[in-house]
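ok trying this again, last paste got cut off
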Amino acid sequence: MDAKIEHLSARTYTIPTDLPEADGTAAWTSTTLVVVQVRAAGKTGLGYSYTHASAAVLIATTLAQAVLGRDAMDPQAAWSAMQAAVRNLGRDGLAATAISAVDTALWDLKAVLVDQPLATLLGRYREAVPIYGSGGFTSYDDRELARQLAGWVEREGCHWVKMKIGTHPEQDPARVAAAKSAIGSAGLFVDANGAFGPKQAQHFARLFMEQDVLWFEEPVSSDDLAGLRLVREHSPAPMEIAAGEYGYSPDYFRRMLEAGAVDVLQADATRCGGVTGFLQAATLAAAFHTDLSAHCAPALHSHLGCATPRFRHVEWFHDHARIERMLFDGAPLPRDGTIAPDRSRPGLGLTFKTQDAERFAVASGGRA
C-alpha cells in the first residue's frame, strides 16, 4: 500500500468550563484542545491533546517536517523521528503533548487505512473498560459536589468516583463525608494534585481511611518519588497510592516503578507520547506487576485500555467527557460503568465536528 503522509494540520480550541474549577494546586475556567489531522492514501487520521495552544505551532512546523513523506503504516518510525526533532527543545512537557497528538492521529490513520477499530489493530485483552467519575472540584460547594458525584453513580453506573482535595485541607474531611453520603456504596477516590508534603499526606491518609477512601492520588508531588514511596509505605491498607499522569516518557515511568512509589501507575496518552508512548508505559507496568489506570481523555483511552494487559480503569473526567461528547461524533457513552470501542467504526471511531467547534477556535496552529 502506497500510503505516504502527505498532509498534516493542527487547530486549537479553547472551551469554557461550565463552572469555575480548582484542585489542590491550580484553578481554571477553560480547557484547551489541540486537534491534529493527517492524511495519506485518501484517508484521514485524527488525534488530539489537552495542552497549550503553542503546541499547534510546534506540530505544524518542527513535527510536520519530521513526519511528512513517511509511511503512514509505520507510526513508530514517525514517533522516533519526532522524538529526535525535539531533542534541543526539550522532550517533556509541551513537546510531549504535541508529539502525543500527532502520534495518535497516525495510529488512527493506520487503523482507518486497514479498516479496523484501533483496539482491534492493537489487539484486545478485553471488550470494554471500567470508568470512574472524576471531578468534585474544590471550587464546588457541598451541594454541587454531591450532585455531580451522585450523578455518575446513578446515571453512568460508575462503581467509583473521585473528588479533588487540598485547597483548604481543614475542610476536606467534611467534604469527604458529604461525598460519601451522596454516593452510597460506591467507592470514593481523592486526588490532592501534589498539594501536600509527605508528613501531611500521611496524616490525611489515616483520616481518609477511616472514611473508607480507597485511592489517594498524588498525595505529594509526582516528582517526589521518595515522598510518594514514604506515603505508600505508611498508608493503611487497602488504600492505594496512585500517580503518573505527568509522565512524559518511558524513562519517567521506569523510575517511578523502580522507586516503588505507587500501587497503581497512571498514564495519559495525550501527554506521554500518544498511542506509542502509552503502550510503552503499559509494558513497563506489566513488567513490574503493577496495574495501569488511564488519566482523562476517555474517547482515546477506551481503545488503549482494551489493548493493555494490566489495566484498571479510565478516568471519566468531567471536562474531557463533556468536550468529547460535544465535539466528537462517536465519543463513547457509558453503560453500566464501562465504555467500549465501537466495532463498526475504524480507527478511534471519532469524527471531529468542525462546524460545532468553530466558535471555540483560537488563532494558532497551521498546516503542512
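PB: full thing came through this time. The longest helix spans residues 94-113.
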